[in-house]
């Protein structure tokens, strides 16, 4: 059923030239094949890996408009609170020395997806508790969004105090990746205190060897359940 739904969605997406529809449908068909070949139990154990693949699907582009709107509004209000004369008109921010526009690329989606990929993998490899891993993931998302607002503030402040020809204004993409690296630091630091609250790995007993004969492995108390 899942494979048929994915195939129908891919056909409609291809017919209507909807890229996101084709990608999501292909993803559903892939999950259906994994489920059919490996079974429900193995598929459930691979749920993180399967969900991780969703980061490759362009469906995340739906977040661009709200991220773009939030970046413009929050940045303008924070600059006004700092005493910078900013007039917001849509996605345009006007200051006495010029104007800035919060374009789609300034919404921070690329930084957000990169942060999600890194933090999700780090949480998976660090924590046994899914709740702590989810908490670190949420912290990463919040950090990526907030630091993108800070990036926009820094660019406008540089234009306000040093003019529109300053390096920060013309090289704001490079500044964005620097801010991306900086935004990861508090999130990765947070993993340390959270790790102290993590539950120990669950142990499972190994079955005894056939005929009652013990082996070096069967004598062990248990093994990690991965």
> Helix proportion of residues, in percent?
55-70%
Uncertain residue ranges: 208-226
Rg = 24 Å
Largest sheet: 3 strands, antiparallel
Structural class based on helices, strands and sheet pairing:
mainly alpha
Distance between the termini: 30 Å
Strand content: 5-15%
Described by the principal axes of the CA atoms, the overall outline is flat
Q: In terms of quaternary structure, what is this?
A: single chain
Order of helices and strands: HHHHEEEHHHHEE
| Total E-strand runs | 5
* Residue-averaged pLDDT: 83
Helical stretch count?
A: 8
Strand order in the largest sheet = 1-2-3
3D structure, described in words:
This protein has about 230 residues and is mainly α. The protein contains eight helices and five strands. The strands form two sheets. Strands 1-2-3 form a three-stranded antiparallel β-sheet, with helices on one face. A hairpin with a 2-residue loop joins strand 2 (about 90-95) and strand 3. It starts with a helix and ends with a strand. Residues about 210-225 have low confidence and may be disordered.
Short description:
This protein has about 230 residues and is mainly alpha-helical.
Q: Main traits of this protein?
A:
226 residues, disordered C terminus, 8 helices, three-stranded antiparallel β-sheet, mainly alpha
Sequence-ordered SSE layout with sheet pairings:
Elements: H1 2-15, H2 19-45, H3 47-52, H4 64-81, E1 87-89, E2 92-95, E3 98-101, H5 109-126, H6 130-162, H7 167-170, H8 172-195, E4 203-204, E5 223-224
Antiparallel strand pairs: 1-2, 2-3, 4-5
Helix pairs in contact: 1-2, 4-6, 5-6, 5-8, 6-8
